[in-house]
Design brief:
The protein is of the alpha/beta class. The chain has one domain: 3-Layer(aba) Sandwich (Rossmann fold). The chain is built from 8 helices and 7 strands, in the order E-H-E-E-H-E-H-H-E-H-H-E-H-E-H. The chain has helices spanning about 15-25, 65-80, 95-105, 105-110, 125, 130-140, 150-155, 165-185, and strands spanning about 5-10, 35-40, 55, 85-90, 110-120, 145-150, 165. It has a 7-stranded parallel sheet with strand order 3-2-4-1-5-6-7, with helices on both faces. Strand 6 (about 145-150), helix 7 (about 150-155) and strand 7 form a beta-alpha-beta unit. The radius of gyration is 16 Å and the shape is globular.
Length: about 190
């Protein structure tokens, strides 16, 4: 089975990630089967399943105490729903290096291709404790792009990341990355 193109969403603000995720899912092709693995406690409207969309939630820290839950959730979701695209939304506390190690473990690495890693940032960054800001800075550094959800987030970043983009550009890049990887994994016709 070819690796599933996967979008990884990190960041501090659950509401900002949920807003981005809703807008991204609204743009997906109805002919494609997508799945969402939620480790972030997203709102109820995102956690319903249909023929072309599957949802699973896992609890615990995705990079330490909930690592096994994350791995099990991914494997179960892939086996049961057989999605063409996967989105993984992780909680704010996810340490990016440990999360990457988890997703690159042999049994997962063969099934997933992280097509894009987006760190969603909002004005919540300004009011966070310094230790949380340090973690979120590591998430931003590990991300392909930092998606600012509001103007206050741009101010909060204050030069911390060179790869700052807006939600519309991020959705376009995410969809293109997922589609490009899918095109590479499709078997030839004939």
């Amino acid at each position: 089975m070819p690796a599933i193109p996967t979008l990884l969403l990190t960041g501090a603000d659950r509401a900002a990630k949920a807003g981005f995720l809703k807008s991204l899912l609204a743009l997906r092709s109805p002919r494609e089967r997508w799945a969402l693995l939620d480790n972030d406690g997203n709102p109820p409207e995102l956690n319903s399943s249909s023929d072309d969309f599957s949802f699973a939630a896992v609890s615990g820290c995705a990079c330490c105490t909930g690592q096994v839950s994350l791995q099990t959730g991914i494997v179960r979701l892939l086996r049961e729903s057989k999605p063409q695209r996967l989105v993984i939304a992780v909680a704010a506390a996810a340490e990016p290096s440990a999360l990457t190690q988890t997703l690159l473990q042999e049994h997962l690495a063969a099934s997933l291709h992280i097509a894009r890693n987006l760190c969603i940032v909002s004005a919540a960054l300004q009011s966070a404790a310094e230790s949380a800001q340090d973690l979120w800075l590591r998430q931003m550094q590990a991300a392909d792009d930092v998606v600012v959800m509001d103007e206050a987030a741009v101010t909060a970043l204050n030069g911390r990341s060179a790869r700052i983009i807006g939600p519309a550009e991020a959705r376009t890049l995410a969809l293109a990355a997922l589609a490009a990887r899918a095109a590479l994994t499709k078997p030839p016709r004939g």
